[in-house]
Amino acid sequence: MTSSRETDxxxxxxxxxxxxxxxxxxxxxLYSEGFGPLxxxxxxxxxxxxxxxxxxxxWGAVSAEDFWKLSKCEQADLIWRTLFxxxxxxxxxxxxxxxxxxxxxLDVGSRDLKSYREFFDxxxxxxHVDKVFELAGVDWVVMTNDPFDETERPxxxxxxxxxxxxxxxxxxxxxxxxWESCPEVMRCWGYDVSDYLDQKARAExxxxxxxxxxxxxxxxxxxxxxxxxxxxxxxxxxELISDCLLPVAEEKGIPFALMIGVKRQxxxxxxxxxxxxxxxxxxxxxxxCDQYPNNKFLVTMLSRENQHELAVxxxxxxxxxxxxxxxxLNNPCLIExxxxxxxxxxxxxxxxxxxxxxxxxxLIYKWEHSRAIIGGxxxxxxxNVAATGWRVSDEEIKRDVADLFAxxxxxxxxxxx
Length: 417
Description:
Blueprint: H1 4-20, E1 23-25, H2 43-47, H3 50-57, H4 64-67, H5 72-85, H6 92-103, H7 113-121, H8 125-136, E2 138-142, H9 153-157, E3 166-167, E4 170-171, H10 173-177, H11 183-188, H12 199-216, E5 221-225, H13 236-252, E6 256-260, E7 262-263, E8 276-277, H14 283-291, E9 297-301, H15 307-316, E10 320-322, H16 332-346, H17 362-387, H18 394-412
Parallel strand pairs: 1-2, 2-3, 4-5, 5-6, 6-9, 9-10
Antiparallel strand pairs: 7-8
Helix pairs in contact: 1-17, 1-18, 3-5, 6-17, 8-17, 12-13, 15-16, 16-17
């Protein structure tokens, strides 16, 4: 029988291992320095993150329409005044801002937004990136790269110098969610794609995907899908998945990442802050994993109600890797609940978190907050094991934690590291 003292020691060792673990962040919206203004950084960008925009407009001091008429600095001033001065910053997004400031060594208690701006303005991009990666304990991240984006595309077609800590993922949302807008554009790029998905058009779509995977070095292809996503079905999306995307993914040896459950623009006035969520049908995921055993699927879902079924589905398919607490699930109470459930059902065979960062500095708070929660969950699980008399060495704990924060993802992709 293990004593409570020994159990507490195990807990401490687990929490320490999690605190020291190096992270591979498998899904972000960050960019390296070579992408210029696409790399968002600094206090004004952190403050105008869309979570904080929605939280501010809800207080009624300004309409959504009038908010967007403000300059970036004016928007940040309004958000700071509304959420940090006139009300206490207790939401997870507000707390994240404070964590960023504190980890940079700034005086959070001063509430001096002007001094915070001056601090970030003095840092070069290179210095800023290096410091954030150091503070977050992150080795490298995966970007979200959309060849249909008119700002990003020319950069890839030029002599782009990409920081090796920023790896690519090919985003295919325009193709799968609004195919009717794609053929004319793709024809301008030299792909003989008709408005209808005939045999030649499908071959050209496959060529397009292959070209962009090769150009970017994409580690996987990814799409964000609505809650009514279904497969199979009589639609261009289903045809593109089965006849174009999955064959290319299998040939290139990369996974297809599905992020399911987003309802776009339920509040159009809120713009990016106006998206919502709904429960989805897991049947599509089951059929994809079952019908395409030679393909690998990374899956996360936006609705809390889908989490148990998704974890159970992952038990049935080795070609399915569950990852992260996405978007509206990236809150402490839900991360804890979901992580506990996944460990109970899947053991250590999943990727517990990704940051989904849009602003460089968010890497700091998203990983600091998630480490604390995941560490607490794992500490309880290892303490339960230790209570039976099973002894877990420091090496075994570090091995397991390294798998959760990096190894499971890189091994699923068959990367060396």
